[in-house]
Amino acid sequence: MSWPTPGGARELAAFTKLQARLPKLFRKVFSDPLAPRTVVAIPGLSMDHEVLERVVGGRHYEERQLTMLMLLRLPNTRIVYVSSIPVDPTIIDYYLNQLPGVPTRHARQRLTMLSACDYSPGTLTRKILDRPRLLTRIREAIGDPQLAHMSCFNVTECERTLAVRLGIPLYGCDPELLDIGGKSGSRKAFREAGIPLPAGHEDLADTAEIAEALADLKHRSPSLARSVVKLNDGFSGEVNAVFSYTGCPKGDCRAWVKAHLPLNLAFEARDMNWEHYVEKLDRMGGIVEEWIPGPDVRSPSVQMRITPVGKLEMISTHDQIMGGPTGQIFQGSTFPADPAYAKEIQTLSAKVGKVLQRKKVLGRFGVDFVSIRQKDRWKHYAIEINLRKGGTTHTYQMLQFLTNGQYDSSKAEFVTPTGQKRAYYATDNLMNPIYRRLTPDDLIDISVQRGIHFDQTSQQGVVFSVIGALSRYGKLGVIAIAGDQVKARAMFNRARVTIDAEAAKD
Fold first, then answer.
1. What proportion of the chain, given as a percentage, has pLDDT over 70?
2. Can you list the domains of the chain with their CATH numbers?
3. What's the CA dihedral at 203, 207, 213, 214 to 10 degrees?
4. pLDDT digits over 306-315, tens only?
5. pTM over cut 0.85
6. DSSP assignment, residue 283?
């Protein structure tokens, strides 16, 4: 088959025509739990593969979107799930057995699992596009394309091409708008929304502009001790770097900053060096922002979406758990965000959402903040827009699908249909070398035998993710769900201690 040239006029026209089907599909199908539909899940992270390779077990992050399988609780919904490497059948069974009120056999009949069987670096979407027969199998599994759409972790030009070749619309942001979600685009959107953001500079193309921006921030704020350098297309804080002004002379410091830039820049990522960082900067561009200090610093985030009919919806608030040398690498989250400021960050994020509405953004996105306690109040600085799913998406989806509850933005809390509040503590980064002794079957056996699994009756317990990384990397995702965050954290700690002890047994 002769396909339109990627990025060419024919492909863009075809994509526009496909996307025009989404509003009708949304009104007819999305709102009706009994309506027939097919969701094609493409869970790959279409990002810089070198950055992803720095994430331990990052290849298995495709498994985070196995939460999409919970859509099979809708009796006429079909899922086509495509992955880079085959997913262990034990892991599939684990998710299907979590389905409330749906026989596993019935759900399995509506699930098609496909794989590129490609263990190499590179993006999943590219692997699919390079395999015409796999594309054919996906199209055959879709059934009626008029009742289908594609769901991705994030959207690039490759996902646009895949949507056109599958003949179904994509529930995600048009790649022509992706700059809005870069570090530079985020700062511009925050200014347009009129919300606080750190002092800084964006649209920086090379080290000379970085040095000039760092010197300017020091000139404007002589007491400034550190600033942050971020690449426009960074992921999870892995390519951030902190510049120290230690030894910086008073007055004009441009020459000093330029000379000390390679020496005073501390990288957040493992094994990053100056030469490699410069190469990425030249390719991606970046920003510089002041480092915001404080005795009590938090990293909350807000998830929202803009539906195919243009409605802005609040999904959730989280407090992100950060790690790394200077606390800039995402490790996990607690839900919901601290009630001391949850409604405040919702209000600020809604202003950003209205800007994105005007720009015709579609789908899920997140807004990240740095929040500083100032006596009896909090000061919030917006730092990033993520025009994609994120590290808090699959955890919230799991809670929502398991309980059929909803987030009440007016109260900043999650409530089940029976009126019970729920919260969770979640991470994709529970790591211990002894976990390599365990298989997925072992993990599931341990969770049931030791009573740490999710109990549908109480709607509390532990759910695992990224299980495929267990035996090779000693890494695991854990979502501990309970009535409040104190109980959720205690449940998480119990699960960790239990797994540690069982893995250590001879």
1. 98
2. 9-171 (3.40.50), 180-191+294-390 (3.30.470.20), 199-290 (no CATH), 420-506 (3.30.70)
3. 140
4. 999 999 999 9
5. yes
6. H
